[in-house]
Design brief:
By secondary structure, the chain is mainly alpha-helical. It folds into two domains: 79 residues, no CATH class; 92 residues, no CATH class. The chain has eight helices and no strands.
Length: 199
């Protein structure tokens, strides 16, 4: 099992065991068409008016058992990046997230706990557009920022506070940060170790 699947089970009679998950996926495929899994996924793309809309339609489709927000987001991003499906996320889909949600709160409010408001989601979208990076990079960066040795480093470095003067992002560009932020290169925000990896 992968890092996000630490608590899965292969028990054949379990409600969330591998057989139950596979059966749930088969039923999902049958619900949306008579073809195989790829044909069903592709049918969403063909009906959508854009790759972003196709991603959203698949992401919001009734879920397969044990196939939640992270699994859907990562799988669709991977299939899009590999050219298997014409799907592209236009934002990090923070609703229902855990690590990325905590990272967004840490970045905007200076702490990992709290309510994920529409304003915070909009700030993250604006920052993604300003940095001109894919949504999956923004999602991954947020997840890494909230980790103890990383997230607090960046929060402290930027001295971010949850007031409008500091959180003054505008769509399409990265506005001036607070006077004491030392004006770091915004691209360094996407480095999840010490500023060494820059996109």
């Amino acid at each position: 099992m992968g890092n996000h699947r630490k608590y899965e089970t292969h028990k054949p009679d379990g409600e969330v065991g591998s057989p139950a998950v596979i059966e749930s996926f088969v039923r999902w495929v049958e619900r949306y068409g008579n073809g195989g899994p790829y044909e069903v996924l592709r049918s969403f793309v063909e009906r959508a008016h854009s790759p972003e809309a196709a991603f959203d339609d698949l992401f919001r489709a009734p879920k397969v058992r044990r196939f939640g927000r992270t699994a859907k987001f990562d799988l669709l991003c991977m299939m899009g990046n590999l050219g298997m499906l014409s799907v592209v996320p236009d934002h990090p889909h923070l609703q229902g997230a855990t690590g990325p949600r905590a990272g967004a709160l840490l970045l905007t409010a200076g702490k990992k706990e709290g309510r994920l408001t529409a304003e915070i989601i909009e700030i993250v979208r604006d920052l993604q557009l300003a940095l001109d990076v894919p949504a999956e990079c923004m999602e991954d960066a947020l997840c890494n920022w909230q980790k103890k040795k990383v997230g607090f480093l960046f929060a402290d470095m930027l001295k971010l506070r949850s007031d409008r003067a500091v959180l003054n992002w505008k769509r399409g560009r990265f506005a001036e940060l607070a006077e004491h932020a030392n004006r770091p290169d915004p691209r360094l925000l996407l480095s999840y170790r010490l500023p060494r990896i820059v996109f």
